[in-house]
User: Fold these one by one.
Assistant:
Number 1:
Amino acid sequence: MALVSEFLGQLTLSYGGEEEPKFPTVVPVRDFDAARDAARIETAIKTKGVDEQTIIDILTRRSAEQRREIAFEYERIAKKDLSVALKGALSGSLEALLLGLMKSTAQYDASELKASMKGLGTDEETLIELVCSRNNEELAEIKKAYREMFKKELEKDISGDTSGNFAKLLLALVQTRRDEPSNVVDYQKIDDDARVLYEAGVKRKGTDVGSWISIMSQRSIPHLQKVFERYKSYSPYDMKESIKKEVKGDLEKSFLTLVECFENRQLYFANKLYEAMKSKGAKEKVVTRILVSRCEVDLMRIRTEFKRQHKKSLYQTIAEHTKGDYQKALLSLCGGDD
Ligand SMILES: [Ca+2]
């Protein structure tokens, strides 16, 4: 028995501090030649009416690192910035997608966050998705990119654009104080947290949102999964039902996004893609954002969850709900049918 527990201990230990495994659909191309790609893009941009197909073929089938090298070579050959040249040559959703690909994943997320808070009003849907679905490591990289790109702290912009408990929750998440997964399962703490979540919400009049925020922003994800399971032994409603009963509006959407991502982050993205393409046409902004930001992270697993949940492949769904060059670019990022 001692041997078995030692073995299990080691298994969880080795999982401990490691990064989440990646499941990309976009991977580095072999026999890569940045100068050749840059020259082909320059020709495509100069072609009368623009040769979008060539630009799509190249930029959607190279890794972020390779695209960065192409941009460097392009500037050397054409004496201008590739993103500026693409902006001049393309338009609409295709332009947004390809310009997104010219940034690193963290830079892209940072610029989407900036855009969601720009000017009067706030695009809460984007803000909630980006802050509540990203893990600690991603959020730390996004904050760094945000600081470098906009010379401002992400926290500062969020607190200027949001208020009340919604602001408190987002700021608590952006502080990235979540525990790393531990190799020791603390049953006492699981039970305590489950009881506190219940007593702060369903059990009392009103809601002690502060208690919910501190538990959901500071505990590790494996711990929270067990807390939500334990929660059901205290509350007649599961955690998601409790959230719907206790809070409303953006705060409700944020807590629901968090819990869905704790449960299965790739299923959350699959469902968002499904919702964005449910009716005629597509919410192109959402589709672009998820494909561009996840194609080098976990889009392969999002595809699997999509097919499993909705009985139709992501590829087929994109093919039915989008069109033209934009569709070609999306399908290429999607990487294949399931
Ligand atoms: Ca209550």
Note: Residues 201-202, 204, 206-207, 246 surround calcium ion (CB under 6 Å).
Number 2:
Amino acid sequence: MTSGDGPVLAVVGPTAAGKSDLGVALAETLGGEIVNADSMQLYRGMDVGTAKLTPAERRGVPHHLLDIWPVTETASVAAYQSLARAVIADVLGRGRVPVLVGGSGLYVRAVLDDLRFPGTDPALRGRLERLNARHAEQSRKLGILRDQHATAIARLEARVRQIYLEDTPDTLSFVLEASSFADLLDHVEFLNDIGRQDDRIAMQVAHATAAMAAARAETARIRARVADTTRVVGARVAEQRAARDRLVASRDALSSARSDKRETLGEIRADRADFVAEVGALERESAALAAKIRSSQGAGVASTGSGVSASGFLWPVHGAVTSGYGWRWGRMHEGIDISVPSGSSVVAAASGTVIYAGWLGGYGNLVVVDHGNGLSTAYAHNSGLAVGVGASVGQGQTIAYSGSTGSSTGPHVHFEVRVNGSAVDPLGYL
Ligand SMILES: [Zn+2]
């Protein structure tokens, strides 16, 4: 992951838990792309029993690492790991959210949790170790040569001192002072010995000097190579450390984001399922209800209501509005849902005449009150009714007891306001 930072979402769980579908929903919601982590779906042709989504089911969300290997190839976690990391870096680099989906825990872990990196190039590390060993050996050698050089110089100085400072007689004085030929020969031999010894010492010094210079040059060369190699290794280690830190940071951010998003998505899915179940059933009855209201109003059924001006309505019950009026998820909700415990008194929003009191499909136990001037109100999902058709009711009078009958996923009052049979937003009248 060298380009771009950001969270990686992982959808994991047992086979057939709906991961693929959830992955697509997440990707649609978050602007993501799917990265497959199911080992079986890496193979071309293994479509049966692997829950592989059809192109239509992918709903236009890009899917990566599907069908990449022939079935004859043996899956390798290492090969998958490098492919997946490259794909994730690419997705992040384009500002999208990678959604890792799969049932193969090993493959998911290979991408998310395995923070170990393959070690530094073993060949490079080996070379550095060999260079370091040579450098140490060469330094030791240089030390020994330096000692030898110092010793040779000291010896030379001693000889020079002996010859020139200790008033040693020269060859001529030896000859003149020799008492015998044998004595003379001894002296000459002595002088020759001195000359040979001086040559040897001078040569030793020259050798030691040259060897030391060569060793020093070789040491400097090795030291330069050690420094170069150390710099390369250091740069790679720093690079890997930075990459690991980024990965750790994004993993930490992910682990909290992951649970938050899973929760939110779960709630949305549950809400949506409830809403669709209730509204779908009410839609089927709505036209029938409108017809009933219009025929009652058109037939001149006596209305004792005096007409109600806007905002003249009472709330039928007191509770939280859990679903408002209007379009949601492609469906029209023709009333408002007010959450109350079962058995609560439901009161007439205004005075009028009961034109319907009984069961009506998804509405369950329903009461409809006509208020005159084409205005009517409906109260649905009741557990019991307190009035019958034709009854005159006053504003605030109990007309029913709340419940969860018909298509309802919990105790609440579904309250509608209709003008000439057509539903309008009740909040405009409350
Ligand atoms: Zn409702």
Note: The helical segments are 19-30, 77-93, 105-112, 122-165, 171-177, 181-298.
Number 3:
Amino acid sequence: MKVNDERVTCEICDAPTNLDDALFDEQAEVYFCDNGCFEDWADDNFHDIVEQYKELHVYAG
Ligand SMILES: [Zn+2]
């Protein structure tokens, strides 16, 4: 079996991370080494995330 050893770089801490272990945000197209870095990123991008959530899930009654 072929091992995928492709490396990606964490958006937050710049850690090189195995592609198989990394988290990928398909919207922002960035990688994170773990959930903690994703949460840091989410804090920094809170406004964008709220806007996007609103577009997708929030309707005027
Ligand atoms: Zn990281």
Note: The beta strands are 7-9, 16-18, 23-25, 30-32.
